[in-house]
Amino acid sequence: MENKGARVALGVWAGLVVAFLWIPLLIIMVYAFNSSNIQSWPLPGLSTKWFPVAWHDPQVHTAFWLSIKAGLLATTIALVLGSCAAFALHRFRFFGRELISFVLVLPIALPGIITGMALNSFFSNRHINLSLWTIVIGHATFCVVIVYNNLLARLRRTSTSLVEASMDLGASGFQTFRFVTLPVIATALVSGALLAFALSFDEVVVTYFTAGAQNTLPLLIFGYIREGQQLPEVNVIVFAVIALTVIPVAIAQRLTRDSGVLRRR
Amino acid sequence: MLLLTPPLAWFLFVYLAALAALFVSAFWQVNPFTTEIEHIWTFSNFTTIFQSSAYRSIALRTITIAALTTIADVILAFPFAYFMARIAGPKLRAMLFVLVLLPLWSSYLVRVYAWRQILDHDGILNWTLQKLGLPAANLAYSNTAVWLVFTYVWLPFMILPIYAALERIPDSMLEASSDLGARSWLTTRRIVLPLVLPGVIAGSIFTFSLTLGDYITPTLVGGAGSQFIGNVVFSSVGVANNIPFAAAFATIPLAIMAIYLVIARRLGAFEAL
Fold it and tell me: Does B268 touch chain A (CB under 8 A)?
């Protein structure tokens, strides 16, 4: 439909958008190798000396493990709750179904400070001290949405005739789940879990309100950047964080690219 | 039904209960002498917000920049999504998809920090401009920087729903339009745009809402005059320890988003999320 000129113009535009998205990430990764602790461009020299410095910082250690723990716990809760919700809303039609599907997306559709502030008032009213568990509760609330969306998308694309065929051939409900449903949804679950973990590991807006005096890794770097301290260490952590989030997301992306056997379209 | 109980209970007893707590706290106040929260119903937090011109201009700035960010993202995203969905071949499309998805999932804080370094007075932007013989941009710590960085960080959230909406338009519909004599501009305006609208609105839910509720970007790349609603909430909790006031201020983006979501739902944006 489009003439050649329009196609070329759109292609150039697409190239510029990709450059816009990626150049800042590439630049900031180069900063990790800055030999000086002065943050100005061009870098005076390249060095890997800040990597061991960041690695041996006890605050970074503590924050890193807190982030890992919170991420794993939140992802586990999200997997259970998100799958339950996706199955229920996919399989059954009932009164209030629309409303529930609306409420489920609220944690990602509403601004972060609302979720954060709401949880903060909630904990404060109940005199619940902020701890690892309050962080996990906050993260799980929006991670559920990720697992739910991922699984629901897969379930919608999967033909129901497979389950029916299995039942017709005399398989029990458990057998059908174990040998038919589970293999179909397994990769969607893994990718949902990876994305939920990546989200939890990076989250900062809500976490601030549910963490109190504790520092997750993003909260630690946010504090460092705000105060202009330890910037060479921040650059190294940033490098590691980019590398660490790209891996699970790339795997998740591969997994959701469907094998094609069970797709409707 | 049994399946639905755990997630429903979680949302009811944690999320919705927390939203209710936010709403209730907004009508309490902190005793200035004891710094304890007094459970007495009062509108004083809201009167403070609405009577202070400083708070009003903060709210207005937040909403304006959220709107400008959304507009800039639509302008950047639409041609890109169009190229991806209707011109690029399957291999290139898959590659572009990953190139958009990875920044979306990579740390938000990291991406804001990258811009702080780029826009800094001694940063790469001014250095490049100087090499090209142009005057320095000096964007650092300004509202323009805040807008630019918001546009950058939320861009993938706008691209993906528009792409999904474009991909769903059957080729036959566009062919029919051109067979019936419509020129490409007419086809774009009468066929493509209406069908893509739910995608644009779905994307705008993210760009608008995420900007409304943010304090990181204004803190890191904004200046003294870049306070956002989020910054006031942030410092009311962290510095002043005035939870009722923070809660009252947080109900403003909540009210705006509630209206926005209801409209978006009417326009069918939820199918495109």
Answer: no
The per-residue pLDDT for A170 is 84
What's the pTM? 0.89
Rg (CA), chain A: 23
Closest by Cα among B20, B163, B144 to B99: B163
Distance of CA B71 to the CA centre of its chain: 11
Average pLDDT value for residue range B236-250: 84
Cβ burial of B202 (10 Å; 0-12, 13-18, 19+) is buried
Whether the link from the prior residue into B6 is cis, omega within 30° of 0, is no
Cα–Cα distance between B111 and B89 in angstroms, integer? Answer: 29
In chain B, where does DSSP find H-type helix? 5-10, 17-25, 44-51, 53-82, 90-105, 108-119, 124-131, 143-168, 171-179, 184-187, 193-212, 216-221, 229-238, 243-266
DSSP B37: E
ipTM value for the complex? 0.88
Comparing alpha-carbon positions, the chain A residue that sits nearest to B112 is A24
Are A118 and B22 a contacting pair at CB < 8 A? yes
Nearest residue to A55 via CA among A207, A239, A215: A239
The amino acid sitting at A232 is: P
- Dump pLDDT digits (tens) for B111-137: 999 999 999 888 899 899 988 988 888
d(CA B182, CA B172): 14
